[in-house]
Q: What sequence folds into this?
């Protein structure tokens, strides 16, 4: 079987949950030939691969969104009005005929000529008048929305028996294009809800004109709807995420839950630390604004005035060098000598040194870092995002609580939770035992892998 794996903004250049999942999944299924079809923002953000491609990766195609903005597109067309009529449905609030979008816009077109045409300028001017958006903001905003989409729809589709996209954004559009052109099955896996995550980013972004923010958000929701409409099966990590997919527009009969799974044998035999004069708190997290490491630093700074024996270890790779530098500067400014900022490390080795872990993200799916912490018998403090609360404090398996959940950016609550686990050794042990039982029962790698292979068999 030949599977085309579609990934966006991660593997093999960035470490993180999705990259680790993709690498392990391909490595664990040598009976499958994988074609990697990956999307990246720009070449300057890639550099040297951080993962060695598994031997069963038989082809790798990389797409860079920066190329969508370069001159010299594919072919040409004088009937730009027809493209506009199809593309503008990606901006709409109502249902769209995504089959018509792919049928009309997946041919060869020079994207740069398109956005410089009289027809496009007239459309931008009309949009400006109808929405009260400045003409410059309307023109450049619509250009930035349409050009990457046209660029995706102009790609040649790799040959495969099945297409599996790990994202519902531009990766989902590639999957829809593959399904449209080949008729082969499309499986869509979401580790987070793509348009919700983009919406959170856009609300805080300073690069988008305020008058175009809602238009951008609608476009990302419609990208997901397009991917949902073409997919044969859509998976999520937990039931609440499935409900959000259906709310956005996915047909319920397409939806399945395939939870994350880890190799528990790597963690389950790590001994629990005994009582010690020092309490080691671990944050296994990559440096990215969405992980909100600054809140963690502030919370630990507050903790130090109450528990002077605590040490915080922040461990992980870097997505955003600027953000990492800001975190380092903040720790230094607070004179927090007990904060140790490390790079990418061996999670198994360092987990043995930790008493409990903490995660202060403003958005998550079902974090592998939490599953690994629980598998090692370490309770976790996490923000109430994604599936974190169900893993830690709202279990449905009857095994009891395995940690503490706090609201995002609530420095006091996170600091209080850390103090609670620092001073109560028996509580740490009890929560850790509950968590280990939960992961061994519900989140093994074999269970996850079997789930995806079963879906492959069904859609084929």
A:
């Amino acid at each position: 079987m030949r599977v085309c794996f579609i990934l966006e903004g991660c593997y093999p250049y960035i470490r993180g949950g999705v990259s680790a999942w993709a690498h392990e999944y391909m490595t664990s299924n040598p009976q499958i030939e994988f074609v990697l079809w990956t999307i990246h923002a720009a070449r300057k953000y890639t550099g040297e691969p951080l993962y060695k491609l598994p031997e069963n990766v038989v082809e790798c195609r990389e797409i860079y969104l920066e190329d969508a903005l370069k001159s010299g597109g594919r072919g040409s067309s004088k009937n730009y009005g027809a493209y506009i009529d199809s593309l503008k449905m990606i901006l709409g609030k109502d249902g769209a005929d995504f089959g018509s979008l792919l049928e009309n816009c997946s041919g060869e077109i020079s994207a740069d000529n398109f956005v410089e045409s009289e027809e496009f300028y007239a459309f931008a001017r009309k949009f400006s008048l109808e929405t009260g958006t400045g003409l410059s903001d309307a023109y450049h905003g619509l250009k930035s929305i349409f050009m990457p989409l046209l660029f995706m729809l102009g790609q040649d589709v790799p040959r495969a028996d099945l297409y599996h996209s790990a994202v519902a954004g531009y990766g989902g559009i590639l999957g829809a294009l593959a399904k449209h052109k080949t008729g082969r099955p499309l499986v869509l896996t979401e580790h987070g809800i793509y348009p919700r995550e983009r919406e959170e980013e856009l609300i805080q972004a300073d690069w988008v004109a305020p008058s175009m923010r809602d238009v951008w958000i609608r476009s990302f929701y419609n990208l997901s709807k397009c991917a949902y409409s073409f997919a044969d099966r859509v998976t999520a990590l937990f039931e609440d995420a499935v409900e959000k997919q259906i709310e956005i527009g996915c047909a319920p009969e397409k939806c399945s839950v395939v939870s994350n799974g880890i190799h528990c044998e790597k963690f389950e035999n790590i001994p629990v630390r005994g009582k010690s004069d020092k309490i080691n708190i671990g944050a296994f997290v990559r440096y990215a604004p969405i992980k909100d490491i600054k809140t963690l630093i502030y919370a630990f700074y507050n903790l130090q005035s109450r528990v002077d024996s605590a040490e915080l270890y922040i461990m992980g790779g870097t997505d955003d060098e600027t953000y990492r530098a800001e975190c380092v500067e903040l720790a230094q400014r607070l004179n927090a000598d007990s904060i140790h900022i490390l790079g990418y490390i061996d999670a198994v080795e360092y987990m043995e040194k930790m008493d409990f872990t903490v995660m202060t993200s403003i958005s998550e799916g079902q974090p592998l870092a939490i599953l690994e912490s629980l598998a090692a018998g370490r309770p976790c403090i996490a923000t109430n995002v994604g599936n974190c609360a169900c893993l830690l404090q709202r279990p449905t398996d009857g095994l009891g609580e395995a940690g503490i959940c706090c609201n995002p950016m609530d420095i006091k609550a996170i600091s209080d939770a850390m103090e609670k686990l620092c001073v109560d050794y028996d509580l740490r042990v009890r929560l850790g035992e509950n968590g280990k039982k939960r992961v061994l029962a519900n989140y093994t790698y074999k269970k996850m892998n079997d789930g995806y292979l079963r879906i492959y068999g069904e859609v084929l």
Observations:
- Residues 71-75 have pLDDT under 50 and may be disordered.
